[in-house]
Amino acid sequence: SPSATCYQPDPGRDACYLSWYYLSVSASPNYMITMTLSLNNKGPVAHTQGFFQTSMYVPYNMLGDGFKVACGPLGAGGKSNLGNAYGYTVRARDSAGLSSANYGTVYCPAYTP
Fold first, then answer.
1. On the CB side of 84, how many CA atoms lie within 13 Å of its CA?
2. Is the pTM of this model over 0.85?
């Protein structure tokens, strides 16, 4: 899956959205059973299940606007010119019981009222 993005539709509000262009996992020769997206401050936010398929693909529009989070003030996530930072995990499990995970961090624009 590609990296996440954080966008702020209204600079006058402390409301940002985390989004992915798509989420994707695959297995071979086993079947994909689950894919779960978790945010560090919210826990699991998306969960998909498979049935006799070797890959899962979730395009951005299946996640709506994304996941609403606080943008945060300047420097809140450790970078002086940005707002909050959010860690995420994309975890997958296949029919053989094997699991894997991808981890990342996304920084949001700062809310500067």
1. 19
2. yes
Cα angle, residue 111 at apex, residues 105 and 113 outer, rounded to 5° = 175
Cβ contact 13:69 at 8 Å: no
- Give tens-digit pLDDT for 46-55: 999 998 999 9
pLDDT digits (tens, 9 = 90+) for 80-102: 999 999 999 999 999 999 999 99
CATH of domain 5-107: 2.60.40
Residues forming a β-bridge with 35: 48, 92
Cβ neighbors of 112 (< 8 A, separation 6 or more) are 11, 73, 74
Return the domain boundaries, the chain. Answer: 5-107
Amino acid of residue 67: F
**Per-residue tokens: 15:** 């409301």
